[in-house]
Amino acid sequence: MASITITLTDTPTGVVAIHTDFRPAIGAPCSPAQAAALEFINRINRDWGIPNTTPKMPPSGTTTDTTITRGEALVLVGPQGSGKSTLARMLASQLGAYSELEACLLDEPVQLFDILRAKPTTLVIDGVPSNAALSQIKLWLTNDRIRVRNVHRQATIWVTCPNVILCCMDATWLADKPRRFRVVNVHSSTQASNEK
């Protein structure tokens, strides 16, 4: 059984610092406790955390020839620390409000309903989605609006389909599904110099 510890600390600036021992594994499914912890952390960050300002540019040398095109998901691929998430936030912020989530939350209907209810223009997804989640993403990419249901609360809403940016360490999971996914390799200048 998963056990997660989350510590919230007041800061002098009035925001809340979050400390946790939970480190999600990219591509691994989340347990119910882990999914709840991720949702809790996201909500605390959104309501009490550091204000969401325009992200800084990614490290110099990072691939930046990226555009968000309606109808296809942008897949940023690179090693840890290469600037994928920073680049994704920068691109998403240029299009309006965005939400960040772990890929495992795409398989949690209640959390996904809450995320889509906030009507983000773009979803920044960290990790490799399941096959069911990939089908959901393709549905967003091929439609302008979709109906989203929350069976637990017996609620239904119509939302504009968000743009999608995925951040992952490799694209081997896309080998048989290249359609509607545009892969861009991201390498920072520090990593390029380390590889020489």
Describe the structure.
With 196 residues, the chain is of the alpha/beta class. Helices cover 28% and strands 24% of the residues. It is built from five helices and nine strands; from the N terminus they run ββαβαβαβαββββα. It has helices spanning 32-48, 84-93, 109-117, 131-142, 189-195; strands spanning 6-10, 16-20, 73-77, 98-102, 122-126, 145-150, 155-160, 163-168, 181-185. The chain starts with 5 loop residues before the first strand and ends with a helix. Mean pLDDT is 76; it is low at 52-65 and 189-196.
Give the amount of beta strand, in percent.
15-25%
Q: How does the overall form come out from the CA principal axes?
A: globular
Strand order of the largest sheet: 4-5-8-3-9
Taking pLDDT < 50 over at least 5 consecutive residues as the criterion, the unreliable ranges are 52-65, 189-196
Instruction: Write the element-wise H/E pattern from the N-terminal end onward.
Output: EEHEHEHEHEEEEH
Secondary structural class: alpha/beta
| Biggest sheet features | 5 strands, parallel
Average pLDDT, all residues = 76
Helical proportion, percent range? 25-40%
Radius of gyration: 17 Å
Number of helices: 5
Measured between the Cα atoms of the first and last residue, the distance is: 43 Å
Features:
globular, 5 helices, two-stranded antiparallel ribbon, 9 strands, 196 residues
